[in-house]
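QA checklist item 7 of 12: single-chain prediction sanity check.
[x] sequence parsed
[x] length recorded as 629
[x] structure emitted
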Amino acid sequence: MGEESAEPASTPTQAVFLSYASEDAAAAQKICNALRAAGIDVWFDKSELRGGDAWDQRIRRQIKDCALFIPVISTSTEARAEGYFRLEWRLAELRSHLMAKSRVFIVPVCIDGTREDACDVPEPFLHVQWTRLPGGEVSASFIGHIARLVSRDRSAPVRAAPATVAAGHSRALPQTPQKSVAVLPLANLSPDKDNEYFTDGLTEEILNILSKVPELYVPGRSSSFYFKGKSAKTVEVAQELNVANVLEGSVRRSGDRLRVSVQLVRADSGYQEWSETYDRQLHDVFSIQDEIANAVVQALQITLSGGPLRRDQGGTSNLEAYQLYLRGLSGFHQMSAPSFLETIAHLERATGLDPTFGLAWAYLAAVTGAQAMYGMVPAREGYERATRLARHAIALSPLMASPHVSLAMIHLYYDWDWAAAEAETRRALEVNARSPEGLMVASMCAAIYCRWEEARREIQEAIRLDPLNPGLHRASGFVHYRAGQFVESETAFRKVIELAPNAYLSHTHIAKIALHQGQLERAMHAVEQETDSALRLAFSALVLHALGRAVEANAHFDELIARHPHTHAFWIAMNFAYRQNLDPAFEWLERAVRQKEIWLSQITGEPLLKDLVKDPRYRTSLRDMHLPE
């Protein structure tokens, strides 16, 4: 509902009209406060009880004059077939028909998990991108987006605004740090396209060197490589990653000759702050990385107290071993069973050529642990070998964070030594306080003990450092779900799907959230989108049972038990628990414990196991996992 701002707009066309149902007043107030704090005029009415012709005419005039119309969409608006907000929506729709197609006028905001494809809103609302602000918690990107739209017809700058973020607590909106740079994947211009692994590896090495500078913010690998092969503009990349500068370039390799061209670009102006082309022999690749990193730091006017930057500890001076390592790195990031085997072969050859190559040993530990985690090798065999490899990497290069992260993951998923997991995580963060993976594991450790605030804080910091990493958003979704914050959890899982559409467990967790909200058809739709067939069986059995479709539910459940008893006992136990059939639920939970299933790391706080919690057998399961009762 609209109302003139407490500080009237200097001209009507600069104002934003905020339209909402009375049930959503608290969320709408948060949005209004954040926009006003940024210097944006907002027409916002706090009551639906006011009326009369004069009031109605003022609302109509405001919708006719405003620069932007922001409808707040939710389950509350869906539940109401009538309401003054629907008249406001209709008036905005009519005005939009008079505008050029290029004009942005309607900016829908959804404050919960309401789906666009099943929503009763005017058609123009469906033709534009929705912004999701769970509970009305405003993001920096939203403020910036609205500021740019309302500034179309004025030159006055929009001031920075403090605002709240998801998770129910406040902090200042992140301002773009001037000492910041995104390292985009270098383009492979080599005649031999097989050199892609070399180009990507060079990018990653430069990124890793720069990330060691305390005064410099460098988004993580997943975020930078998200833009590989995309035609995103520099300013778009900078806005998405919240950086002021972008490093981009190309690599051309021909035999033993190497040409690396790079440029540092200021995102807001397109100004080229520094550029260089390196024509060298292949064996100079190590010095090229150092030179580029130091040139970037110098261009950004950062003083290095410890002398010039150098490559990460654990490296090699053996060119052949290094190239094998880069090939292994490429296969590791492809995250498939065949690529993992290729990675191990390359890394084993690399360590054979240089037995002191700590980074190669560290990635051997990581890929071997991943094989065990995803069931590609027997758990005991994989985890125990990964443990030996990680410890060997630490012995060679104590100042590497990644092998400590590998050990922490093994303690979490395999031997359930929670104290050891936290100790290894602390060591990883002592070595590299800005390790997104280290912060993610710290969040997982806190969640095991239901320390939800700490878990949220750690995973939010990880996401700040690597904002487009789908694994981090998935971990955030797990934390919020188990803490009972379903809106924030769904937002996180939808981000995972946006970044990695085939990522498993995201759709099924959205289904669980919808199930808790009583939105059974929405839950079934989410289950049908799950890419993992076993998880699709497990959750379709749950949702079909809730829908009362017993024959189908039982058929799916029987198939789950028949096909996946050795890997999905935890989900079988959950199905029995949901049906309140407790004896078989505990039998399967005990089996999951014996099988050391990785899903058990999610046991604390799982709402679908609530019927088991009061039973003494549940405490026995926790003791078997070395968890406090």
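[x] summary fact logged: Residues 2-12, 153-173 have pLDDT under 50 and may be disordered.
[ ] second reviewer sign-off
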